[in-house]
Amino acid sequence: MIEVVAPTTVAFASANTVAEVAAAIGDPVRAAMLMALMDGRARTAGELAVLGGITAQTASGHLARMVEAGLVVAEKQGRHRYVRLVDPAVAAALESLMAVAAIAPPRHRPTGPSDAALREARTCWDHLAGRLGVALADALARDGRVVLADGAALVTDVGEAFFCDFGVDLGRPPAASRRPLCRACLDWSERRPHLGGRLGAALLDRFLELGWLVPGPRDRALRLTPPGRSGFAESFGVEVSRAPT
Amino acid sequence: MIEVVAPTTVAFASANTVAEVAAAIGDPVRAAMLMALMDGRARTAGELAVLGGITAQTASGHLARMVEAGLVVAEKQGRHRYVRLVDPAVAAALESLMAVAAIAPPRHRPTGPSDAALREARTCWDHLAGRLGVALADALARDGRVVLADGAALVTDVGEAFFCDFGVDLGRPPAASRRPLCRACLDWSERRPHLGGRLGAALLDRFLELGWLVPGPRDRALRLTPPGRSGFAESFGVEVSRAPT
DNA sequence: GCGATGTTTCGGCCGGGACCGAAGCGTCGC
DNA sequence: GCGACGCTTCGGTCCCGGCCGAAACATCGC
Fold first, then answer.
1. What ranges in chain B are assigned the alpha helix state H?
2. A98 touching B, CB under 8 A?
């Protein structure tokens, strides 16, 4: 008795959809558009066109394809069409692709002008990433305010008091005493975890509120202000060198 | 004074490499190959060719492209060429793409033959995923053995004793008392977290050792054995229905 | 050495898709 | 209503890349 195996590709039905999603990301222009949308804000089709360096009609085609693939949603407002990522899961997928791209090729990686700023400090959906984000996570772990391990993170009791003092609202008091309300998010540029989850979002909100960081105009880069520099040093023990190597 | 902005796409230098990586995944055949490699084991080029339903020479081209993109590595052993994922980060990226693909299109998603088995129970790099994996995580959380929140997970004291009794070795005793040694991994088919990290890997090892689960021959699907069925019910309170809807 | 087997390279075919110019449609401001 | 503006559709060009057959190369068993 011979077992007959169908010769054609039937092993993974979902592979097709994965391929569709990946192919929808797998174009330089579309990838740039998606990365510009990673902060969760919506952009108009025209903004994305100039960002990609293409004409409006070509951008329209790209956007249609990304809508089709379920990556972005578009809604009309007047004569503009606002486009945003359909779900934080899309941003997470992009981050993980960036992580793969960062480890993969020691080949020519032409670090562009704003690339340095992105590596320094940027938003990752709703929280802080980049060198500053990783340094902050390290400092909080060093001081026993959070515990990082195995891609997960956890707020300690002493950390909870500290964050409360710092003015971040962590929502409802923990029902279970040891609830990890923050998520360790792998940083694509640093290859080390930074803090995400509710805590990461609340911290970034607070930093923006305090004026320690100001968002960049057209990308996800964040600029550290002078009060931010001293604030991070005093409150968190994070010294930010002026220019990294 | 007018600020001149370069019209071409310079906003994100890393966008190109992200696009390269995504494009390397964005082909049905390559995606199927990568998903077959997600268990971390290596396959020969020929195996991947028949899996993709293509000829050897076409598969060779696909593999060359994936090597170029830094997704897989290949090493020769005799007249075979073994291919494996270059890093667990690649598997993580594929999982996150699957998550996006799962939420995105309510369109035609032709669930293939082995797709049902994959949804039921499969390996996710080195731990258990699928309906069974999610149910296990739920049961452990319900019984207070782990705490799940915000994409992170944490073993409780009572859980630590339980896992020790169950025969899984969690490695060195925790230096910090509240170390989260497991990771909550978002399940693409269930859209709910399952247990990864060291704990997830140790549990899967133990299940295989006990013969509760047996690995599928050619894909990542896992088959639940009769002792497994009763074992999951008795030890974890997880009842596995025979055929899900 | 010689054939069998696994894998790659070469050459050619062909379709998809990225791009733009021109034109069409809807919306805003006057 | 009319032009300006934002966006999409249509038509056409062009090139990338997926596919295979044939052949070359490497390795194993004899």
1. 14-25, 28-36, 45-52, 56-68, 88-103, 115-120, 131-142, 157-166, 197-210, 226-231
2. yes
